[in-house]
Description:
This protein is an all-alpha fold. Helix content is 55%, strand content 0%. The protein has a single domain, classed as Orthogonal Bundle (Cytochrome Bc1 Complex, Chain D, domain 2). Helix 2 crosses helix 5 (131-142) and helix 4 (98-107) packs across helix 5 (131-142).
Amino acid sequence: METVSQSVSRVMSWLVFGLILAGLGGAVAVQWxxxxxxxxxxxxxxxxxxxQVVYAQYCAACHGDQLxxxxxxxxxxxxxxxxxxxxxESGHTWHHPDQVLFGIIRxxxxxxxxxxxxxxxMPAFGEHLSDAEIMAVLxxxxxxxxxxxxxxxxxxxxxxxxx
Length: 163
């Protein structure tokens, strides 16, 4: 026969288990919702204009006011870090889906966007910028790419969503 203490312990174990499952389910739902709503539209004039303001304040100092990046951006700096890459079509930003670019801006170059221990000067902006501001910056950046590059990157973003 089970004692009251054992019964309470069993109930508490199930409650903790249920809370863990609910938390994991919530995390999956948030990730799904985030992926589903991520939209950086270079044709949205208002979003691009908002992104230009945010870019000028938070990004241009490193990535350039014309999205040109730092000089010799493919060569390591004396501190062994990489210079800020350009965000125009000469860089590699357009090689990544929106979800990855969003994550890098939000969390910096940290896992899963970079290997453990990777050293970068790219800060995390998640505490300074809202999701809408991050999307606006991406819309602004994308608005500077040629139509063919925009289409390729949009396809990459859709493939990432569909995986």
